[in-house]
Structure formats: C-alpha cells, structure tokens
Amino acid sequence: MTPEDRARTIAYLDLQEGRGPAPVLADDAVRELLGTSRRIAVIGASDDPSRPSHDVFQHLLEHGFDCVPVNPNVPSVGGVAAFPNLADAVAATGPFDIVDVFRRPELCEPHAREAVAAGARCLWLQLGIVDWASARIAHEGGLSVVMDRCLWVEWRRLGRPGPAGLAAPA
Fold it and tell me: Which residues in the chain show pLDDT less than 50?
C-alpha cells in the first residue's frame, strides 16, 4: 500500500467513525440543508453525458434547483453557461447555498477557499471525495460540510426535500 493510499484509507475511516478534525452534517441536517437550499454551484460539472457530474447536474435542474456549472474547460452544461471559477459565477449570477465539488481530493482546497469567500452555506464533496483540509477550511469559514455523498442520491434517499420556495416533486 502506498503512503497516499494509506492516507486516503485513514481519511475515509475517520469520516465513517466521526473523528475527523471538522464536523460533517448528519442525515437530518443534510435533509434540512436540501430543503432550504435553491442555488447550487457545481464545480467540475461536465458537458459529457457519460460523466456523473453531468448526470447529477441535469437531475438537479430538472427537479427545481438553480444550478450553475463551474468548469473552465466547457462553455456550458445542459444549456447553462459555465464559468471558469466560483467568483465569476457569483459575480454574474449571485450567491450560492451549496458548492458541490466533483474534483479529486487533492484539488479541493482551493474550492473550499472559494466557497468561503463566496459566502456559501455548505461545501459538499461528492461521493468518493474526502478531504479533511478542505473540510477544516470550510468549517472555520462558517460553512457546513458534507463529504463522500452524492447530492442527487441524498436528495432522493432523504425524502426528496424540495428546493426553497418550491414544492417537493412526487
């Protein structure tokens, strides 16, 4: 086992056992967050329909969330203009409740800093992503933290809490 694999395994175990250096939201708090949030910046959203970030982005849009893709490599995702960074997305479209990150763990820290600077409510690291340094940055900046969870899966699993101001779809 490489040192990187060992560190990744420890990070996942710490998350599962609730002993990381920053708190992460439990199911009830995630349900409340999803029920009171409307705007989601999706960092790493892809215009490639075979990518999970594209699928999640499309599903969230279809169910009433106001999503904006943040990806310097694509002009748009699902017909929604993409922005090269979170600051540009906020400047053009307004603040976000959730910053949903589809990036490798070692690339998440700058996005945690962006989310804090943007005044988001939550840094959400997608399924398969655990990064305690990013969680600490977000938590110390006043944001809630979710890691190693798919926003779309959690929305469905937790009873489909509707975006703020909208009825939850059946």
Answer: 165-170
